[in-house]
Amino acid sequence: MTLAVSPDSLPALVLNADFRPLSYFPLSVWSWQDAIKAVFLDRVNIVAEYEHEVSSPSFAMRLPSVVSLKHYIQPAKHPAFTRFNVFLRDKFECQYCGTKDDLTFDHLIPRRLGGATTWQNVVAACSPCNLRKGGHLPHQAKMFPRQKPYQPSVHDLQANGRLFPPNHLHESWMDYLYWDTELEP
Predict the structure, then answer these.
(1) Quick check: 24 and 161 in contact, CB under 8 A?
(2) pLDDT tens profile 159-171
(3) Would you say residue 183 has pLDDT above 70?
(4) How many Cα atoms sit within 13 Å of 142 on the Cβ side?
(5) Cα separation, 179 vs 21, whole angstroms
(6) What's the 3-state SS for the chain?
(7) Is the pTM of the predicted complex or chain greater than 0.85?
């Protein structure tokens, strides 16, 4: 008896032309539809396949589980300043108390005092700590971040992303992913 599996539960891991994931967090995956479209447009090579296939009356194809781009995409040298990337740099932890809940971001030098929204002035903070610090400087509030904020490199964010493996990791992906199994997310 064959179990019916929805193709939607079978994403394809997307590797750059050098066989490294485009991103670790979020992990670079495409839906089965996007992977098949890329195959037909000759933009990717199929590296590994699932046992499951999709078919039409005149065609059948095993679903790709790993694809590699045919042309190398140069990673950005400097990651964009986004809320998500600040959280990733700070490992999704409040930089004051360490909780992972209810994260916001805090300006070390408050905006009302001329503080800019930059890598060097913003840290991940839970709502209670952010409210407690309010519009004060760290020394006034006696609240100091666990790490000095900095502009991360793409490598820094990729390394932090490896600390958070996704729930779905197909065995065909394991030769291309390198997770830090010593640390807990």
Answers:
(1) yes
(2) 888 887 776 678 8
(3) no
(4) 0
(5) 12
(6) CCCCCCHHHCCEEEECCCCCECCECCECEECHHHHHHHHHCCCEEEEEEEEEEEEECCEEEEEEEEEEECCCCCCCCCCCCCHHHHHHHCCCCCCCCCCCCCEEEEECCCHHHCCCCCCCCEEEEEHHHHHHHCCCCHHHHCCCCCCCCCCCCHHHHHHHHCCCCCCCCCHHHHHHCCCCCCCCC
(7) no
